[in-house]
Specification:
globular, disordered N terminus, 54% helix, alpha/beta, 15 helices
Length: 325
Amino acid sequence: MTSSTDTDADTASPAVSAGYGELRAELATLTTEAFRPELADIDRLPTREIARIMNGEDSTVPAAVADKLPQISAAIDATAARMARGGRLVYAGAGTAGRLGVLDASECPPTFNTDPSEVVGLIAGGPGAMVKAVEGAEDSRELAAADLDALALTENDTVVGISASGRTPYAIGAVEHARALGALTIGLSCNADSALAAAAEHGLEVVVGPELLTGSTRLKAGTAQKLVLNMISTITMIRLGKTYGNLMVDVRASNEKLRARSRRIVSLATGASDQEIEAALAATDGEVKNAILTILGQVDGPTAATLLSESDGHLRAALAAVHTT
């Protein structure tokens, strides 16, 4: 009996077979796709032993990220400079990489009170691809260009192409199109000498080695990408004045937990009494940063808003302005 795989191979055209042969050969050269014979019997091991091996694999990821800190830092500084001029941060990827970008973007509004349009996650195939694969979407550079054109990209924007393999056409196409438009470009991959890094102004290649499950880049590669994306968004927001020390003073109090956190942040920043905190938040329509400024700077709500506006939202600068007037 002929298997379905054999049938597909027999009926495929020579051109198609050759195309898949080339792709197979390309994948064989990628570290993220490498087969590890020492793990060939992992399915026979006790669960605890598999967990121990997996945990050991994961522990190597931070060191791989640490090796790229100079390049990551340079990319962040460049991103923050563009966003300070009104630019946006746009992530573009397919599959796991795209989902990680969408996740990071979606966390910015509640954490840093950014508008949803300021940090954007694009995934090949659109929002539906977050939960279900969209066939062929990741292979289209044109789709990436169209997705970026829908955002009316400018030279103040930053586009981060994300691809564990570093060869995904959607991610590469996004970076190439963005760079042609004058936007800042970052290519985040987990293979050395990747096409994605070569296409970007800032190439970040965090090489974590072969995966526990051959080619399953949702594992170490996904963890590495998540760590780097955490750095890009968080440190950029720190540079933009979205924090005061390590306090999230731009947090959006959209539920009871966040409202309680807002009051705790004001307390930690000022040492004020509960009564003072409630009065400050009432005078500033619940804006944490403004409330802190009214207490520490001993100004009213409208004055706090003016000072923060003149300081581009940087609380330390606004406080300095109070103390020098």
